[in-house]
Write a structure and sequence with these properties.
CATH class of the largest domain: Alpha Beta
Low-confidence stretches: 153-165
Largest sheet: 5 strands, mixed
Number of helices: 8
Strand content: 5-15%
CATH superfamily of the largest domain: Resolvase, N-terminal catalytic domain
Distance between the termini: 29 Å
Number of strands: 5
CATH architecture of the largest domain: 3-Layer(aba) Sandwich
Strand order of the largest sheet: 2-1-3-4-5
CATH topology of the largest domain: Rossmann fold
Shape: elongated
Number of domains: 2
Structural class: alpha/beta
Mean pLDDT: 83
Radius of gyration: 22 Å
């Protein structure tokens, strides 16, 4: 499995630089012990109370763009302190990525208080998504009642194509994705508007869009 090593110290003092190197060495040993393939080592000197850190932003970006299964840290305070720590723990665990720490000599075991807060955050997010979907459904119903004809949005893309290509509103997919909906939820929403799309189709269109803007 692939893993990212993340090391942090709070200041740029020489003694802290030594601590940074020690973290890296110990985490490399932990990766070897757990049989991880290290794909990246991120080190930074910054306050754990700040979210706007180059290293942590690079970590979050690599988690989404690379095939990463785990993040290795000295302990959870290296990710951050206070609310910043909770926010980052939530972002990482939400991606299905496991945390391993030196302090636990393996997979990180969250404190009961942190685990409880993360459960609450997850519940709040889930209800926010449900409320958002309810609003979308009401908007769809209103649009249909006002004469919207969803069947007009499906058409063949040229003769002999062999298979009907479904026209979908890519801009709407992107907007809904930014609002935190899953590809399954986006597909369900679009089907409510009459677009006969699957989760796979939505995912593919979203990937095509993201690849086109990075070229």
């Amino acid at each position: 499995m692939n893993a990212i090593i993340y090391c942090r110290v709070s200041t740029k003092k020489e003694t802290q630089e030594t601590s940074l190197e020690r973290q890296e060495e110990e985490l490399i040993q932990l990766a070897e012990q757990c049989k991880f393939t290290i794909v990246s080592i991120i080190k930074e000197q910054a306050s754990g109370y700040e979210l706007e850190r180059d290293g942590i932003l690079e970590l979050l970006e690599q988690m989404k763009s690379s095939d990463v299964h785990a993040v290795l840290i000295q302990d959870e305070t290296r990710l951050g302190r206070g609310n910043a720590k909770i926010a980052l723990l939530h972002c990482i665990l939400k991606e299905g990525i496991k945390l391993y720490s030196i302090s636990h000599n393996g997979e990180l075991q969250l404190a009961e208080s942190d685990s409880m807060v993360l459960q609450i955050v997850g519940m709040v997010e889930e209800y926010q998504r449900k409320l958002h979907n309810i609003k979308i459904k009401r908007g769809m119903k209103r649009a249909v009642n006002n004469g919207y004809k969803p069947e007009r949005n499906l058409k063949n893309q040229g003769e002999g194509a062999g298979r009907e290509k479904i026209e979908v509103p890519v801009e709407e997919i992107v907007r809904l994705k930014k609002n935190g909906l899953t590809f399954a939820e986006i597909a369900a929403t679009l089907r409510g508007f009459g677009y006969s799309v699957s989760k796979a189709t939505v995912h593919r269109r979203y990937q095509d869009y993201t690849e086109s803007i990075t070229e």
